[in-house]
Amino acid sequence: MLKISNSISIPLSEVEIQFIRAQGAGGQHVNKTSTAVHLFFDIRASQALPARLKEKLLTLSDHRISKSGKVIIKSQSSRSQDTNREVAFKQFVDLLKQVNKVDKRRIATKPTFGSKMKRLNKKNQQGSQKSLRKKVDY
Question: Which residue, of 23, 39, 73, 83, has the fewest CB within 10 Å?
Answer without folding.
Answer: 23
